[in-house]
Amino acid sequence: MASRQVFLKDLKVADLKRELEERECETTGKKADLQNRLKEALENEGENPDIFLFEIAGDINSALQSLKGSLEQKLIENGSNLEQKFEETSGNLRGMEQNLRGMEQEGGEQQRMINTSLKSPGSDIDRMTNPQASSHMEMSKIRMKPPQFDGKSSWVNYLRQFEAAARANGWSLAEKATALTLALRGDATDILQTLSLEEQDDYHQLVKHLEMRYGQSHLEHVYHSQLKNRYQKSNESLQEFEADIARLVRLAYSSTPENVMERLAVQAFLDGLRDTETRQALTLARPSKLVDALARALEFEAAKQSCRGQAKVRRVEEGVEEGTCNEAEIRRVVEGMLEKRQIR
């Protein structure tokens, strides 16, 4: 690059700083300060600042312009190549995007078909994956119609049947109130005249009024007395006696826990037995449930019948009174019952 010679006054700031740096002088300050500082340095060197010529490199601007042109040309060429590659890449991306959308649509359609099959009630897949729901759906198609109530049958038994139908149908309280109102017949419908529309639509209020008229909770003291004085009749079988004891106990102790009710029923059954020997045998066996007490009583009665038959055969030889069992036979039967109880 060609150089040129200039006087001190023609030096630019960059040239002044470069000359000062070469002479190890300070390079800070304004242009005038730099000129004065360089002038002093020249004088110290024995040079005349007014006529001293400085060697300055050629015009850097032209060099920069040339370099700029070269760079721009390369950028244009590279930019053209990059633009072409960008277009190619964009085309590839658009193709991939279209393929992905197509695959997504196909997958979504298949998923919808699968979901429809899975959720379709009664479908083969639904029955295989959720047999309980399928069974429930089939059961829900069956509507249980509650029986009618005319006030002459047992209200307690009717209410149990009605509640069973309501559970099977999945009725709400409002639906139960409507169904119970429609089930009333005969004299039982008269109770509707005593109710307001709000009470008639309230299931609990409707049941409460029917309970007061046809229920038996207010007769518990009567059933207590009947149970206390209930004894087996001469022509009454053990099964009939046990059934009536069970009925009276439930009527007299309707709010009592089941285990307590069982003990009361067993005791009432024992106290009311007509046959003393049977009562004694059951007392020793100590059954915990009424059905067990009935079973033991039937076993003992059967054993007594067998014993009477054997006694008739031995009547002449042993002198035993006809129709009675000796003490050993009774003891054998009782011990057998106790052994069965321990095994169970």
Automatic annotation (TrEMBL):
Question: What InterPro entries does UniProt report for this protein, alphabetically?
Answer: Retrotrans_gag_dom (IPR005162), SAP_dom (IPR003034), SAP_dom_sf (IPR036361)
Q: Which residues form a coiled coil?
A: 224-251
Task: Kindly indicate whether the keyword Phosphoprotein belongs to this entry.
Answer: no
Q: Which UniProt keywords apply?
A: Coiled coil
State the source organism's domain of life.
Eukaryota
- SAP domain residues: 8-42
Q: Which Gene3D superfamilies match?
A: SAP domain
Q: Which SUPFAM superfamilies match?
A: SAP domain (SSF68906)
Q: Which PANTHER family match?
A: T-SNARE COILED-COIL HOMOLOGY DOMAIN-CONTAINING PROTEIN
Q: What is the designated name of this protein?
A: SAP domain-containing protein
